[in-house]
Amino acid sequence: MGADQKSAGLCVEAPPPRKRVLILGGGFAGMYAALHLERQVGTRDDVEVTLVSRDNFFLFTPMLHEVAASDLNATAIVISLRKLLPHLTFVEGDVSGLDLEAKKVTVAHGGLDGHSHTLAYDYVVLAMGSETNFFGKPGPRDRALTMKTLGDALLLRNCLVDRLEEADADCVATGERNPIVTFVVVGGGFAGVETAGAINDFIHGALPYYPNIQHANVRVMLVHGGKEVLPELGEDLGAYTRKKLIEHGVEVRTGIHVKDVTEAGVELPDGTVVPTKTVVWTAGVTPPSLLETLPCEKERGRLKVNERMEVPGFPGVWALGDCASVPDVTNGGKPCPPTAQHALRQGLAVARNVCAALKGQPGKPFRYRMLGQLAAIGQRAGVARILGLKFSGTFAWVLWRTIYLFKLPSLETKVRVAMGWTLDLLFHKDVVQLIGPRELDQLTLPALPLNSRQQVRQVQALQPRTQH
Fold first, then answer.
1. Where does the External alternative NADH-ubiquinone oxidoreductase-like C-terminal domain lie (predicted)?
2. Does residue 202 sit within a domain?
């Protein structure tokens, strides 16, 4: 009997190894891919899905300008990835190495005194987003703020209050423009227009608390290299946006490419300098530099993929979102625009293709026809083009808020945002500095220019980890 049991025991086969799926990036593309996989394979024992992200939260980037303008609390537009994806493995860190041949990823975390991990995979989804494009100009890189992360929005908000405090203590002649409260936004796309409108609303809404600053002392400028702002919406809505911004007090200059950003201010091509201490750079994005090391075909720096978002030559590798050039089969194969609504749908489509690959089946092409685009331009006004129809004014602003409220990924964030908007309608702007100038001065090395990305890291280091 014992021999029979022993013999039977020898016949027991070991369970097959778990399939390892890595998702690199916690933005719209990566998070929604992870969210779909959470629902489909999150509880399976034969599949392990790991999400790698530099932040432990998902950030709803379309509302970043509202955090900068004090319309929303920072925690209202973020949600913990661990809370959102309870059945997946999460690793916080920066992807510092990627070997597609060996199927290994190196993840670094812990700051300057941190360490690295090597993660092996069977399937990998590259959703690494993009970085601010400074077009090789050291001036903007070292001296301008950006609007890509939660730290950027917090830093800008803190900077706006700091400028008001500084200007209020200075002696300024009535009607004279003051460089301290001159704010220049470079780039007239969605991020630039919404940021300029938010800055203008915040500054003028806060002036009642600063008696030594007059409205005439303040200058908010938007500089755009194209013919019209918001080119994605067409010239008519772009012209309307420019007109409304000017009515709100924003100085709009189109057809101008900024030459440089110096200590004196923003230098224009004709040699004139706009004196300012605050420049926000939203002039474009570029793929992560790590992609340059990959032996893959690229298109303008983005990974070129097929209609199923597969990277040619590397089975089991998908790329999507801002870091990939995804062909739009509904538009003659032209690359999909790097918008949140495309990244969201690409994430869902890739997750379905990963599930198909786990079953040994081929994936399906990505198909999505854009429904429309919206932008908030300040003073409770907006512009929108939806299903070919154009909207503007207060109705478009309400439409913007309604649509994006329903796009938030959880009931908790929807409630937080709705409450924040309600409080914003009832009360004046909050002019509390989240980080005082002394703390920032202590963090700054006197002999080393501190660019905005370094500042963001430092600001985030002082903020408590986002937990809900």
1. 371-428
2. yes
Q: What's the CA gap between 151 and 130, in Å, rounded?
A: 16
3-state secondary structure of 249: coil
Same structural domain, 170 and 267: yes
348 in the same domain as 258? no
**Exposure class string for 437-464: b at 16+ Cβ within 10 A, else e:** eeebeebeeeeeeebbbebbebbbeeee
Q: What pLDDT is attached to residue 178?
A: 87
What are the DSSP calls for 36-56, one per residue?
HHHHHHTT-SSEEEEEEESSS
Q: Tell me the one-letter amino acid at 327.
A: P
Token output for 314: 């590397």
| Rounded Cα gap, residues 92 and 73, in angstroms | 23
The pLDDT assigned to 106 comes to: 96
Structure tokens of 28? 């719209």
What is the sign, positive or negative, of the torsion defined by CA atoms of 52, 58, 63, 64? Answer: negative
Strands 250-254 and 219-224, how do they pair? parallel
Q: 392-407: b or e for each residue (b if 16 or more CB lie within 10 Å)?
A: beeebbebbbeebeeb
Q: What pLDDT, in 10s, does the model give residues 425-461?
A: 888 888 888 765 555 554 443 333 334 444 444 443 3
Does residue 156 lie within any of the structural domains? yes
Q: Do residues 232 and 120 both lie within one domain? A: no
Q: Please identify every stretch of the chain with a pLDDT value under 50, giving residue numbers as ranges.
A: 1, 5-9, 442-468
**pLDDT of 467:** 33
* 252 and 392 assigned to the same domain: yes
- Exposure string over 160-169, b if 16+ CB within 10 A, otherwise e: bbbbbeebbe
Looking at the 3D structure of the chain, how many domains does it have?
A: 2
The DSSP line for 373-432 is EEEEEETTEEEEEETTEEEEEHHHHHHHHHHHHHHSSSHHHHHHHHHHHHHHHHSPPP--
- Residues, the chain: 468
Domain assignment of residue 80, yes or no? no
186 located within any domain: yes
Verify that 193 and 213 share a domain, yes or no: yes
E strands, 255-388, are 260-261, 265-267, 273-275, 278-281, 285-286, 298-299, 302-304, 317-319, 324-325, 327-328, 334-335, 372-378, 381-386
- 249: containing domain: 138-283+372-462
**Cβ neighbours for 101, distance < 8 A, ≥ 6 positions apart:** 295
Task: Determine the 3-state secondary structure of 276 from DSSP.
Answer: coil
> What residues contact 164, with CB distance under 8 A and at least 6 apart?
181, 203, 206, 207, 210, 213, 431
Residue 277 shares a structural domain with residue 237: yes
